[in-house]
Amino acid sequence: MNEFSRFIAFRYFTQGRRRHTLSLITLISVLGLSLGVATLIIVLSVMDGLIAKTEDVVFKYTTHANVYRMIGIFDTYDDIVKKVESLPEVIGATPVVFKEVLLMSEKGLATAFLNGIETEGYKKIADMSKIMVSGDYECLDPEKKCEYLVKSLEKMNGLNDFLEEKTEIYPVIIGSDLAGKLKAVPGSVISLVTSGAGKVSGETVPVSGTMVVVGIFESGMYDYDSRYIYAEFSGSQKLLGIGKNASFVSTKVKNPGDISEIKWHMRDLAGGFPFAVQDWRDLHKTTFKFFHLQKLIMFIILVFIAVVASFGIITTLIMLVIDKTREISILRSIGAKKRHIRAIFMLDGFIIGLAGTIAGSIIAAAVCLMLKRVEFPISKEIYFFSELPAQMSAGTFAAVTAATLVISVAATLYPSIKASGITPVEGLRHE
Question: Does the structure show a pLDDT above 50 at 162?
Answer without folding.
Answer: no
